[in-house]
């Protein structure tokens, strides 16, 4: 709960009473490892905050899964385009570990905004958080090699290799696991000779 409190007060700029009200109406859910938070064809009608645990989003093309993002503790997670447009999502959102998530549904959020426009700050924070991540990811595929994407990922997510299997990381980078192994080997050799 401290993670959410810190974001509400120090990052979003809402008040203690906003935070208290949110905690009174939110649902607390435990999503077990390998369980889906959202699946394709479903309209996402909630916002979720990961209090603990790790999730991934992915799509399936043919028989191949492609990771689109990872969601760590202190991240908001959900099919945001589906939430905004109220159309079915195309992605899977799966717990990679047991996760505790705090959720409010779309109707609750709209009621909060109707009662107090300050709640728009929450939506703005989530939208900016998601947009910045999406833009960085898109640019990485347009401008960087797989090795550069890997180095940036390690900077952005320190310790990711200790918590996420290599085949998931390779999928996120848009390469095969054996290509990731080669990149890591070359990187290690380059560091040894520099």
Brief characterization of the structure:
It holds the Pfam family cNMP_binding. The chain has 194 residues and is an alpha+beta fold.
Name the features.
single chain, 194 residues, alpha+beta, Jelly Rolls, 2 domains, four-stranded antiparallel beta sheet, 9 helices, 52% helix, 22% strand
Description:
The chain folds into two domains: 2-143, Jelly Rolls (Sandwich); 144-194. A hairpin with a 2-residue loop joins strand 4 (55-61) and strand 5 (64-71). The mean pLDDT is 92. It contains nine helices and eight strands. The chain has 194 residues and is of the alpha+beta class. It has helices at residues 2-12, 16-25, 80-85, 106-115, 120-143, 146-156, 160-163, 166-173, 177-193, and strands at 27-31, 36-38, 46-52, 55-61, 64-71, 76-77, 92-95, 99-105.
